[in-house]
Specification:
The chain has 456 residues and is of the alpha/beta class. The chain has two domains: 230 residues, 3-Layer(aba) Sandwich (D-Maltodextrin-Binding Protein, domain 2); 209 residues, D-Maltodextrin-Binding Protein, domain 2 (3-Layer(aba) Sandwich), CATH 3.40.190. It is 40% helix and 15% strand. The chain is built from 21 helices and 14 strands. The strands form four sheets. Strands 1, 2, 3, 6, 11, 12 and 13 form a seven-stranded mixed beta sheet that branches. It has a three-stranded mixed beta sheet with strand order 8-9-14, covered by helices on one side. The chain is globular. The protein starts with 5 loop residues before the first helix and ends with a strand.
Length: 456
Amino acid sequence: MTATTRTARAWRRGATVLAAGALAATGLTACSSSSSGSGSSSGSTASASDIAAALQKKSTITVWAWAPQTKDIVSAFEKKYPNVTVNLVNAGTSTTEYTKLQNAIKAGSGIPDVSQIEYYALPQFALAGSVQSLDGYGLDSLKSDYSTAVWDAVTVNGQLDALPQDTGPMALFYNKKIFDKYGLSVPTTWDQYVADAQKLHSANPNEYITSDSGDPGFVTSMVWQAGGKPYTVSGTTNVTINSQDPGTAKWAAEWDKLEEKGLLSQINGWTSQWFTALGNGTIASLVTGAWMPGNLETSAAAGSGDWRVAPMPTYDGTTAASAENGGSSYAVMKGSSNALAAAGFIQFMNAGDGETIFANEGGFPSLNSVLNSSSFLDQAPSYFGGQKINTVLSAAAASVLPGWSYLPFQVYANSIFPDSVGKAYEAKTDIAPAINTWFKASGTYGSQQGFTVTTK
């Protein structure tokens, strides 16, 4: 497996924030240029032959993306389609890009043809009418090439709004050296994980089963894996937030056993101190997305040979269940003057040769054919003791629970997470009441943006 840089990986956490001022424009009042060009209006249709023809014509498309593999994907695309020039722009990572994108949409100029948008942020742009429906381009025929959960992530209000590139099915990354030293089991249930945490921390108060100082992307992913569905979106304006969601309560009660008893390291993630702790084993495991291996290889090199990967623990210990933590899609933006060529590019990128390039350069792919290929499954990185970790991670991708929905203002909701749930982590108090406060504040914001929000 080829390692990628921390910068390449960190964006997949899906827990970053936008300034409230910039975000306010992404509600129902958001709009884009009325010109969609090249047969790209939402009511038009285009065949595969129309896209193929567009790729043979002289044109230029602008692509906003930060994933480092995109450069080589663009080179391969331009080699195959020499009449299309791709202007690749790194407009910033995650919410930095979203702020610039929203400003361009509001101004009605400078909008790229294609934009990289994380799954948690896609509904915000899709429901505002800022991305081009791909249904009319025949790309909906690709549905069977992806898992149900991945396809759900790019389908908003029944409309295909982007194509998936990478995903973050969750698994348990653990330090085998530390687990063996203290006689810890590789847990199959969350209760076993809590028992491991207690045993480890009792044996050495300076060592922890994992770290968690409060992260909205992690919380939503863990609620998802617990079977939670706290958010329901109907149409473009109706949002229900269920503060009594059973999955949310199930996860909060389990995690409280760790959080309230001080069994979680409070080292902030993605810091040098955090990577040092992962390298020397004082943080003994992580429950995170399948994009994590490159980060460990690059930034926690001292742990090489010690780490392994196992399926995510579950509540019953028998039925495999995972959730997504991070991941990105590519959308054709409304206002593109070369929308057919743009659609052809994202098809090449995410459903063609580009996805293989992405996987070969350390990305975790979403395309089933790549996930199940021997070249992917047989990778045995020395960092993980020669374990074929992708067999575990590919299985995790297949076991992601379907039916999850993000809020159409999730980016803002994540930005206010520290005001409630973050404080509960700091005080080591019950998580559930803080989540309810978070849900309520998120709903209030949604109502202010013109959504009809029902909070149960």
